[in-house]
Amino acid sequence: xxxxxxxxxxxxxxxxxxxxxxxxxxxxxxxxxxxxxxxxxxxxxxxxxxxxxxxxxxxxxxxxxxxxxxxxxxxxxxxx
Length: 80
Fold this sequence. Notes:
By secondary structure, this protein is mostly helical. The protein contains two helices and no strands.
């Protein structure tokens, strides 16, 4: 693999990791809101945050899978 292709694929992996970390940060923020709701209950907001948490968790899983798949491509490209 030429250096330009290597650099391009490496940048993509870093961007994917950044996206995954951003999603994890969103989950942490949602968890803070859910925790705050123990002191100031709001059933509608709690439901919305639980749904958002579920979706964000699913996004992290999808992104993790995409990273794994891309890493396989990256490793194969390095070997050729």
